[in-house]
Amino acid sequence: MLNKEKLIFDVDYEQFDDLVVKASNTKPILVDLWAEWCSPCLVIAPVLKRLIDEYEGEILLAKVEVDEGENMKLAGHYKVRGFPTVLLIMDGEEVARFSGAKPLSFLREFINSHIA
10 Å Cβ neighbour count for 77? Predict the structure, then answer.
């Protein structure tokens, strides 16, 4: 059985380069830029968890709470305009993104269209 704690993890500004950018050279990583006050963020969180479970370790999910510490700098760096915004990072680069709460069917299509 897979260790779910390793598939979904919290990350902050200081750890982002190592835990997301560099790690994406090994495995695709979804980055959920979210805020506690954001209703759509709370709606999509369990949908993202289900997606990660379905892909059984093929992709990881990094969660960035934008209101903590210097995390808003990541939102600025990636020119995020609203929350939630979910980035797909592969080989150290953003390859795709979407914003807002989406159904599981959309998330599957999003992943399948970018991961061969």
Answer: 11
Q: What is the mean predicted confidence (pLDDT) over 38-53?
A: 97
Q: Which of 8, 38, 42, 47 is catalytic?
A: 38
Can 41 be counted among the known catalytic residues?
yes
Active-site residue among 20, 29, 31, 41?
41
63 among known catalytic residues: no
Q: Which two tokens stand for residue 67?
A: 């209101």
C-alpha 65/C-alpha 18 separation (Å) is 17
The structure's pTM equals 0.94
| pLDDT score at 2 | 45
